[in-house]
Amino acid sequence: MSQYAGVSLHLDSLGEAFGYPEGFRDPAYHQVLDRFQALCDKHRIRGSVFVIGKDLEDEANRERLRWLARQGHEIANHSWSHYINLGAMPLEEMRFEVRASHYRIADCVGYEPKGFVAPAWSYSERLMRVLISCGYEYDTSLFPTPLLYGFLFKNALNHLNQPAKLRRVLDRKDWLEGVRGRRDPYVIENSEGELVMVPMPVANGMAVWGTTGFVFGWRRHFQFMRQALAVRTHFNYCIHPADLLGQEDVPAGYTHSLERLSGNWREKMDRMSESFALLVEGAKSVVTLREMAASVQERALRQIAA
Ligand SMILES: [Zn+2]
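A: This is the predicted complex of the input protein with zinc ion.
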């Protein structure tokens, strides 16, 4: 049984995917946040929501995020622009991506975010240094299984006709982490400070997050979840807006190539509800990622003291 489980919502907006069209009412901030809140209420969970800073240039999105924060969820940082090669970007650009979003989120919800996840789990040591220098307590960008290569291959296929995006898909510094990345949370230290890395949960080489249900089928997905909850002390369950949205939620006139948006949102809610129930059953406590990271930090301190 896991000691701690948590839910991370990577709030990949449709606005970002569509290039921020004028007057767009973003289903990621409206339908998705309502459904996420309803699921969390039902299972008595508070989650961690990773936000794209640029989305908060929209007043309606800001209001929705403030509302969500008031429900007790942790609001965390998912970069300013959602560049999928964040971990490989030059230092100054990377700093901008972290900081611009950091201050915009703080301005919106009234506290500075302490958790980060890179778009497309684009982990790098340079990014960890930037996060430590910005006072982050944890990061969850590490994808420590060979499934990373399958995920990137699929992502590359999706962008074959968009050369600029394809270059970003392949521009990474973490090619070795799929094989050598550590699978349990650990503390990363340097001369400026430290942060906790909470990797993607893995069991039998299989990473599990919301999307695996769409790729491998839901029966297997629940089986992967049970296996990972049995072997991992910490289980971070990552989901995306597409896990809670149906085709009917996308406003007419927006042609899109977003994946997993076909299908009925009510069925998706049922599956997510089943996943949340498994987390509650399979872990001693379900906490925010920040609380999970704090438990790792305490464990490390106890080990030093012993
Ligand atoms: Zn994302």
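Residues 10, 12, 78, 82, 119 surround zinc ion (CB under 6 Å). The mean pLDDT is 94.
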